[in-house]
Amino acid sequence: MHELSIAMSIAELALAEAQKAKAVKVKEIEVEVGDWSGVDYDALQFSLTAVLNAEAVLKETKLNMIRRTPVMHCKECNCDFTPTAMYITQCETCGGEAIELKQGKELSLLSLIIED
Fold first, then answer.
1. How many domains does the chain have?
2. Global pTM?
3. Cα–Cα distance list, 111 to 26, 38, 89, 108 (Å)
4. CATH of the domain at 20
5. Residue 54: which domain range?
6. pLDDT tens-digit profile of 26-60?
7. What number of other Cβ atoms are within 10 A of residue 98's Cβ?
8. Measured by CB atoms within 10 angstroms of the end CB, which terminus of the chain is less buried, N or C?
9. Using an 8 Å Cβ cutoff, are 81 and 47 in contact?
10. How far apart are CA 70 and CA 46, in angstroms?
Protein backbone atom coordinates (compact mmCIF):
# COMPACT_ATOMS: atom_id res chain seq x y z
CA MET A 1 0.00 0.00 0.00
CA HIS A 2 2.16 2.86 -1.26
CA GLU A 3 -0.67 5.32 -0.61
CA LEU A 4 0.38 5.44 3.05
CA SER A 5 3.94 6.47 2.15
CA ILE A 6 2.56 9.10 -0.24
CA ALA A 7 0.28 10.40 2.53
CA MET A 8 3.23 10.56 4.91
CA SER A 9 5.28 12.50 2.34
CA ILE A 10 2.45 15.00 1.84
CA ALA A 11 2.14 15.45 5.61
CA GLU A 12 5.92 15.96 5.91
CA LEU A 13 5.79 18.66 3.22
CA ALA A 14 2.92 20.38 5.00
CA LEU A 15 4.73 20.24 8.35
CA ALA A 16 7.94 21.61 6.82
CA GLU A 17 6.09 24.54 5.25
CA ALA A 18 4.24 25.22 8.49
CA GLN A 19 7.53 25.26 10.42
CA LYS A 20 9.15 27.58 7.86
CA ALA A 21 6.25 30.01 8.25
CA LYS A 22 6.14 29.53 12.02
CA ALA A 23 2.48 28.59 11.60
CA VAL A 24 0.25 27.39 14.40
CA LYS A 25 -1.62 25.00 12.13
CA VAL A 26 -2.31 23.99 8.55
CA LYS A 27 -5.90 24.90 7.70
CA GLU A 28 -6.22 23.15 4.33
CA ILE A 29 -4.34 20.80 2.03
CA GLU A 30 -5.37 20.45 -1.61
CA VAL A 31 -4.26 17.33 -3.48
CA GLU A 32 -4.90 16.38 -7.11
CA VAL A 33 -5.08 12.67 -8.04
CA GLY A 34 -5.55 11.31 -11.55
CA ASP A 35 -7.47 8.09 -12.08
CA TRP A 36 -4.52 6.75 -14.11
CA SER A 37 -1.82 7.91 -11.69
CA GLY A 38 -1.39 4.43 -10.23
CA VAL A 39 -2.67 5.66 -6.87
CA ASP A 40 -5.89 4.37 -5.34
CA TYR A 41 -7.90 7.54 -4.63
CA ASP A 42 -9.88 6.11 -1.70
CA ALA A 43 -6.81 4.51 -0.08
CA LEU A 44 -4.90 7.80 -0.34
CA GLN A 45 -7.81 9.72 1.16
CA PHE A 46 -8.05 7.23 4.03
CA SER A 47 -4.27 7.30 4.60
CA LEU A 48 -4.07 11.09 4.49
CA THR A 49 -6.90 11.42 6.98
CA ALA A 50 -5.16 9.03 9.37
CA VAL A 51 -1.74 10.69 8.98
CA LEU A 52 -3.14 14.22 9.38
CA ASN A 53 -4.98 13.24 12.56
CA ALA A 54 -1.74 11.91 14.07
CA GLU A 55 -0.01 15.33 14.04
CA ALA A 56 -1.13 18.17 16.33
CA VAL A 57 -0.41 20.90 13.74
CA LEU A 58 -2.34 18.96 11.08
CA LYS A 59 -5.16 17.54 13.22
CA GLU A 60 -7.85 20.03 12.12
CA THR A 61 -6.65 20.33 8.53
CA LYS A 62 -9.36 20.27 5.88
CA LEU A 63 -8.43 17.80 3.16
CA ASN A 64 -9.53 18.84 -0.31
CA MET A 65 -8.89 16.08 -2.84
CA ILE A 66 -9.54 16.62 -6.52
CA ARG A 67 -10.05 13.56 -8.70
CA ARG A 68 -8.98 13.92 -12.34
CA THR A 69 -10.60 11.64 -14.88
CA PRO A 70 -8.58 10.74 -17.97
CA VAL A 71 -8.87 13.00 -21.00
CA MET A 72 -7.23 12.16 -24.32
CA HIS A 73 -6.45 14.59 -27.12
CA CYS A 74 -6.39 13.72 -30.80
CA LYS A 75 -3.96 15.76 -32.86
CA GLU A 76 -5.67 14.72 -36.11
CA CYS A 77 -9.20 15.96 -35.44
CA ASN A 78 -8.21 18.27 -32.54
CA CYS A 79 -10.81 16.85 -30.18
CA ASP A 80 -10.66 15.90 -26.51
CA PHE A 81 -12.42 12.77 -25.34
CA THR A 82 -12.78 10.59 -22.27
CA PRO A 83 -11.34 7.19 -23.15
CA THR A 84 -13.47 4.10 -22.62
CA ALA A 85 -10.41 1.94 -21.84
CA MET A 86 -6.92 2.51 -20.47
CA TYR A 87 -4.95 1.19 -23.43
CA ILE A 88 -6.41 2.73 -26.55
CA THR A 89 -4.44 3.39 -29.70
CA GLN A 90 -6.96 5.34 -31.75
CA CYS A 91 -9.15 8.39 -31.37
CA GLU A 92 -12.66 7.38 -30.44
CA THR A 93 -14.03 10.17 -32.66
CA CYS A 94 -12.08 9.93 -35.92
CA GLY A 95 -9.99 6.77 -35.57
CA GLY A 96 -6.73 8.72 -35.84
CA GLU A 97 -3.63 7.37 -34.12
CA ALA A 98 -2.02 10.67 -33.06
CA ILE A 99 -3.46 10.68 -29.55
CA GLU A 100 -1.99 11.72 -26.22
CA LEU A 101 -3.08 11.70 -22.61
CA LYS A 102 -3.96 15.25 -21.63
CA GLN A 103 -5.19 14.60 -18.08
CA GLY A 104 -5.44 11.69 -15.68
CA LYS A 105 -1.93 10.88 -14.41
CA GLU A 106 -1.66 13.77 -11.92
CA LEU A 107 -0.47 13.31 -8.38
CA SER A 108 0.21 16.76 -6.97
CA LEU A 109 0.11 18.73 -3.78
CA LEU A 110 -1.59 21.82 -5.20
CA SER A 111 -1.80 24.09 -2.19
CA LEU A 112 -1.50 24.56 1.54
CA ILE A 113 -3.30 27.15 3.62
CA ILE A 114 -1.55 27.83 6.90
CA GLU A 115 -2.52 29.88 9.95
CA ASP A 116 0.01 32.05 11.73
1. 1
2. 0.86
3. 11, 21, 35, 9
4. 3.30.2320.50
5. 2-69+103-115
6. 999 999 999 999 999 999 999 999 999 998 889 99
7. 12
8. C
9. no
10. 22
Which strand (E) or helix (H) includes residue 28? strand 25-34
Residue 80 within any structural domain of the chain: no
Query: What torsion, rounded to 10 degrees, do the Cα atoms 72, 63, 112, 43 define?
Result: -60
pLDDT band at residue 1 under the 50/70/90 scheme: low
How far apart (Å, rounded) are the C-alpha atoms in residues 44 and 4?
7
- Residue 86 covered by a domain: no
User: Has residue 91 been placed in a domain?
Assistant: no
24 inside domain: yes
3-state secondary structure of 93: coil
Contact 52, 25 (CB under 8 A): no
> What distance separates the 2 farthest-apart alpha carbons in the chain?
55
Of 56, 54, 4, which is closest to residue 26 (Cα–Cα)? 56
Residues forming a β-bridge with 28:
62, 113
